[in-house]
Amino acid sequence: MTTKAQSKPVRRKTPVARKTITRRPTAETAGEGKIPAPSKRKATETSVAKVTPASAAEPASGTRPTPGSKLGMVLALLEKPQGASLAKLVEVTGWLPHTTRAALTGLRKRGFAVVSEKAEGGGASVYRLYGKVA
Predict the structure, then answer these.
(1) Which residue in 114, 133, 127 sits closest to 88, CA to CA?
(2) I need a labelling partner for 134 at 20 to 30 A (CA). Which of 31, 42, 56, 93 fits?
(3) Position 8 pLDDT exceeds 90
């Protein structure tokens, strides 16, 4: 009886095909091939937005969800002074909890300052917009 330490490694009879590794183009090699050089765009002061409590709740125009849509209803509940719990948002939209949390993340990515606060007495978290807190 042989153990794993005593067994010989298995060798393949045919060579293994390996993918060739291509290098990303640099500024020096861009003229040599047909691939353009990567962009060297740098962040400027105008491209970085500063978030203040006054402007945090309302993002730039054109990013608000359509009124009457499910995401619009979520935003309407978040704009109320008392905010909304996850259970209330799930009830109104008919979504599962993980989908509702993903929608809140989507609102954050659109520029809305959605915050989560623990309810008094150890209850469920309450979600609301940062600039709309009563």
Answers:
(1) 127
(2) 93
(3) no
